[in-house]
Amino acid sequence: MDPIYVTGHRNPDTDSIVAAIAYAALRNACGEREYEAACLGQVSDETQIVLDRFGFQPPKQITNLYNQVRDLDFDTPPILSEGVTVGRAWDELQTYPAVAAVPVAREDGTLYGILSRTDVANYNMSRITSAELEEVPLFNVLSVLEGRVLNEAGENTDTIAGEVTIALPQSRENLLFQKRQSIVLCGHQPDMIRRALQMNVRCLVLCQTEISEELRAMPTETCVIATPLDVYRAARLIFQSTPVGRICNTQGLVCFHLDDRVDDVRDMVLKYRHPSYPILDADEKVVGILTRYHLLRPRKKRVVLVDHNEAAQSVPGLNEAELLEIIDHHRLADIQTSNPIFVRNEPVGSTNTIIASMFQDRGLMPSANLAGMMAAAILSDTVMFKSPTCTQRDIRTAERMARIANVSLEELGKAIFSAAVDNKSAEEVLFADYKEFHIAGHGLAVSQLTSVDSSGVMGRKEEFLALMGKTAKEKNFDLMILMLTDVLMEGTQILYVGDDEAIRQAFNVTPRDNTAFLPKIMSRKKQVIPMLSDLWG
């Protein structure tokens, strides 16, 4: 069964990553084994410290939730080799009556062509006017005729070709086979057998009869085959020994890949209107067949959102997915659903505080390592309990999780906020914890870096301002802010590009050279965004 992804916001922070892991663990522990933690970007150094400390791997990274070809219930008929006989291919088509065509692949599994029922019918009809069998492997002929080789010349033969002829009575001389390049079919007709062997025809097929020792011993270059089929069936079936690679369609093929979006596929199907389309994987190997009927009802990807409920911060393609739940501690934003869903939104400082309560509601204790990681996430999101978003419930929950994990909150907090940024590029720092907002017609982006020493980033002020200016121009932002939240100073140094007056009025400070210090400002969610929202109305 397809997984239910549990994912936080883009540019995930520690609370977002840990919340996805913890909630997936909770649901799976309660017997629902479909939940899988996921993330929408690279984990930060801070988060990696937490993961390494408690022995967890980063969640699976997903890029979108768009409906893709892999979400369709496409057909998976046998994938034939180009050397398979037409007869065997027809048997496969008969086994799958709902399948109009089967893919034909090269030896390495890549697409060679596509074989439809129409291709087989056209080939069979063409044999009515032409009795010529083009060169085919002997093994193919033996397979369709259920035959066996009777002589030494046959053992030395690898391929067979020629005009297929049914031997007639000797009194009709004008209808007898005349050429060596003939494939002669006959029954118990010693004279016909002798004539064929003397002429050294390419192949002699004995239908429901045996050859005498005298004739078997005759010197000849003819390949002699015995079949239990009658002459009429053998004459029809021998043409089915042709490899499908010769009759399948190899021109103008339209293919799709597993990761192609269903909307794009729909447009292509309407444009080309082929009955069937091969499906390829990332290695260009054939995995199935798609028809227009498969596009009617794609399976939607299923997702649970944690630590956010805003479309701009969520996974691309969310509108095409089935949203099942939201677990969050932010303001309610703009995500809409077509059906009622479970939402748990509480005014606390960390999503993990909510998830810890959900463990308690189900009478389940998180493991020591998971509890330690949840304690670290609460410390991170509440800035070691100094953020105005922090509640007594956050503190009590973090303390409980720390006791379960047998760790010190003070030591854990120092380890979290000691992640160095000196060796990181400006892009890595700026977009590590980055969120975009749209407030009353204004475009806004706010990044936040929390540390125990913000002086290192301030020393690279011009580098950051240049990058922020470029980004703001590209995305048409009215204001872009980098929050350098200092745990020890209990405040935030901001770098910004945009309207000086907006900074002055929103935070009641006097900015200088695109910088300002905001004492007691620790939270983007509860302090910075509300102040700008009030300003812009």
Q: Which geometry do the CA atoms define?
A: elongated
- Classified by CATH, the class of the largest domain is Alpha Beta
| Overall pLDDT confidence | 91
> In what range is the share of β-strand residues?
15-25%
Largest sheet: 6 strands, parallel
Outline the low-pLDDT stretches. none
The total tally of domains equals 3
CATH topology of the largest domain: inorganic pyrophosphatase (n-terminal core)
Distance between the termini: 47 Å
Q: Please give the count of helices.
A: 19
Query: Helicity, in percent?
Result: 25-40%
Structural class determined from secondary elements: alpha/beta
Number of strands: 23
Query: Could you give me the name of the CATH homologous superfamily of the largest domain?
Result: inorganic pyrophosphatase (n-terminal core)
Rg to the nearest angstrom?
37 Å
- Give the spatial strand order of the biggest sheet: 3-2-1-16-17-18
CATH architecture annotation of the largest domain: Alpha-Beta Complex
Topology:
Blueprint: E1 4-7, H1 14-29, E2 35-39, H2 45-54, E3 60-61, E4 80-81, H3 86-95, E5 101-105, E6 111-116, H4 117-129, E7 132-137, H5 138-145, E8 148-149, H6 152-155, E9 159-166, E10 182-186, H7 190-199, E11 203-207, H8 213-216, E12 223-227, H9 231-237, E13 256-257, H10 262-272, E14 277-280, E15 286-290, E16 302-306, E17 322-328, E18 342-345, H11 351-361, H12 368-381, H13 392-405, H14 409-416, H15 426-430, E19 434-439, E20 442-451, H16 455-458, H17 461-475, E21 479-486, E22 491-498, H18 500-507, E23 515-519, H19 524-536
Parallel strand pairs: 1-2, 1-16, 2-3, 4-5, 9-10, 10-11, 11-12, 13-14, 16-17, 17-18, 20-21
Antiparallel strand pairs: 5-6, 7-9, 8-12, 14-15, 19-20, 21-22, 22-23
Helix pairs in contact: 1-11, 1-12, 2-12, 11-12, 12-13, 12-14, 18-19
